[in-house]
Write a structure and sequence with these properties.
single chain, mainly beta, three-stranded mixed sheet, 1 helix, 17 strands
């Protein structure tokens, strides 16, 4: 997977983020996510939580993600609660694609610029803001992927293609080959997911 040349940074006039947003999860799990946004001098702080039941397992994930002015993830702290106990993980990125997990280098994550939480529909906003794709452009977006149940961390290869806009909303074709999954994501004017087929729908 490789990006098309000349497809970034030209016409993605996102409105400012709201102070908060929420999603109802559906199909894959039953649950709810709430997030609060705060602008910083050097980026944004995204603080949220998801509670859900999936595959007969209830879990809670609280998270705090900091992105820089270019929407590159610089840190993500998550605390998960499930029947197996309480866990906390800290991810730290240098903004150039190098990572530490709980303070230890994670070379298998080299080249990733985003964090993708399995528990969160909000984190699909991070690559869209960072890539700023123009209509028809495609880009790979490998991410640091954190599982919901045990906060396990792995590399996730994925790709975004900006499709045609409709009703003032941006649409992206999303693929994650390791899961044999693809869908069209719909975003609002602030670059937050409105509809994630089979996963979540915006509730607020």
């Amino acid at each position: 997977m490789s990006p098309r040349s000349g497809g970034q940074g030209e016409d993605v006039p996102f409105l400012p983020l709201p102070t908060s947003a929420a999603w109802a999860h559906q199909d894959a799990r039953c649950g709810f996510e709430v997030v609060y946004f705060r602008a910083l001098d050097d980026g944004h702080l995204l603080t949220g939580a998801t509670t859900a039941v999936e595959g007969g397992q209830p879990w809670i994930v609280d998270y705090e993600i900091r992105v820089d002015v270019g929407w590159r993830t610089r840190s993500a702290r998550a605390t998960g609660r499930s029947s197996t106990g309480l866990r906390t993980r800290l991810l730290e990125g240098d903004g150039e694609g190098r990572w530490r997990i709980d303070g230890e280098p994670a070379l298998h994550l080299d080249g990733c610029l985003d964090v993708d939480l399995e528990s969160s529909a909000m984190t699909n906003a991070l690559p869209v803001h960072r890539l700023a794709l123009t209509a028809g452009a495609t880009a790979p977006s490998p991410a640091v992927y954190m599982r919901a149940l045990d906060l396990g961390i792995e590399r996730l290869e994925q790709q975004y293609t900006r499709a045609g806009d409709q009703d003032g909303h941006q649409r992206y074709e999303y693929t994650a080959p390791v899961f044999d999954f693809s869908c069209q994501l719909v975003y609002d004017e602030a670059g937050l997911v409105l509809a994630y087929p089979g996963i979540a729908v915006r509730a607020f």
